[in-house]
Amino acid sequence: MGNCVTNRTKIQTNLEKPQKLYIHQAFMRHTLTNPESRKQLLLFEDNFIDMFDESPILGQSMYWFLLGLQNNEQKGIEYETMLQISEVFILGKSENEILRLPNRVSLIVLIVSLFGNLNIKDAIKQFASMEITYLQTTKCMQVFINMMLRKQNVNEQPIKSFVDSLFQKVNGNVPILQLIKFFDNYMAQLEEIVEDYYYNKFLGEQKLFRNPQLQHPSHILNQEWIAFMYLSFMHKESNKLELLYSTNVHERNFELLSHLLTECQTSVLFLIQCEEANRKYIFGAYTNFEWKDDAQPNGSKEDCIFQMFPQFKVYKTKNDKFTRSQCTYLNSKHPELKQGIGFGGELAKEFRLFLNQDLLNVQCKNHDKTYEPGELMPLKQAKVSILEIWTIQQIQGTTQFKDLIYQKIDEQIELEEFENPLVHLDEDISSYRSGDHPSLNQSIQQLQEKDSCDWDGQSQNGFEEEIIIRGDGFEEVKKNEQGFEVIPLNEASINKKSTNVQKLEKAPQPQLQEDNQFEEVLIKTSQSMDSSALQMVYNVVSGTFGQVESDDNWNGDNSDWKGNGSTTAKQSRVQLSKDLATITEELKESTNTQY
């Protein structure tokens, strides 16, 4: 081990100390798999292939790229070199002038396309003028799919269909910047997928990204096809695909299909396979709008149509107001109008894609007024051999960990102003999971000091507040400032200025305590004020604040609540800031249970 590290140059990066520690631990762990690596504290080609076991192409290409970047007599990769490349994957940028590339995706494309080239530094300088071949593009897409599916052996047919579409009108190679721009515009989620993959390898942080999973067998789909659809048009939160309808299962029943579509409350994926003259064509549509069997044009701007095979192409809606409601059409009830399922077109006619009510015949066009122009299949009409329709379910109750604290604050504390605490990677990740987050606690403490009020309802920030405890476990918080008029509903015709909540006389109700009255008020704003009074509801049971108008437990008046009916007696006036401790505690517990 003697002199193997004495001449290494210290590398300057913007990585924080905990990040460097994780990378160093991962580096040392991988040196243990090889006696020569352990002896010299270097990583060799076999180490990288083991490190990126889901993608041997990436492992091998990464080794040769770093060897050229290192540019010394060593045959192995030093820790300092790993820090340089890790800075780009973790932070998305580099202090090293040589590695100042557009983003993480461009670095992967560069690593794969320069495989075997040891003159890396000169090659990177020519990055803007570089071109990429069909084979190199295929390898890049295979690496991305390996990252998404976390497996080595993938079906190559979807990859070939995608790359064929990129090179369809190109004689020769494609400018590398053109390819990266395409990824940025049409597959923006690739950047986060690369980041998540590298985080998992070197920082030991498992992200929540998962490729949507098939829940039933399919005659058309596989996980590789879903990966391309996820990158191209599916929502980021898409979790799983469930079979809604298939001609192999439900035969060809248009009435049943119409009923299933109108009952569906999720995104829907249509897949149509046609066979003509021993050739197979697969195409379809993706919708996000509620289906209505009314023979009227519907849909949303997030809808799209696409060709899957022999080439993978996506055609999205045109960016103008006219086409946003022309995406979908369904008619099974009006025989005087065209019956079937349509996509695109104009005013419920001249459809870009139309499936007849017999579910046997389909017509296609290459252009319309709704979607981008392009071919779905080379035939104008064909027989449908297979029709599959899938619902796409969304992830429920999960989020990126970095966004969790912000989300909890937004949901539970809707007061005047609150500065969200920043989540820094240099802080111990276990502190977040346990709820012991210093910046969060400090922010809540500041909020307590800002919005505390005394027992008489007088706020320190100039507001008067009244909190009314209901017998079903809810508190109604009424907050107003000088200049607001508070008028009882039964005396709305009397202009009576007050800064105190007036009682509303109503039918006798069971008393929990002598002072525990239910009050109903109408709050108006005087002409001298620009803003309206803040009226909120605090649920004692769930520990959440919410606006009166949007709270699920609020039915529009104090006489009817959808609470738990608790009859526990409570004090009629409490201090608002005092309950923030409860919110803080529940926030900690929620954060802890998520992870």
TrEMBL record:
Transmembrane residue ranges: none
Residue stretches of biased makeup (Low complexity): 555-566
Pfam families: TLD
Alphabetized InterPro entries for the sequence: TLDc_dom (IPR006571)
Name of protein: TLDc domain-containing protein
Originating species: Paramecium octaurelia
PROSITE patterns recorded: TLDC
Segments of this protein annotated with the region Disordered: 548-573
Domain TLDc residue range list: 219-393
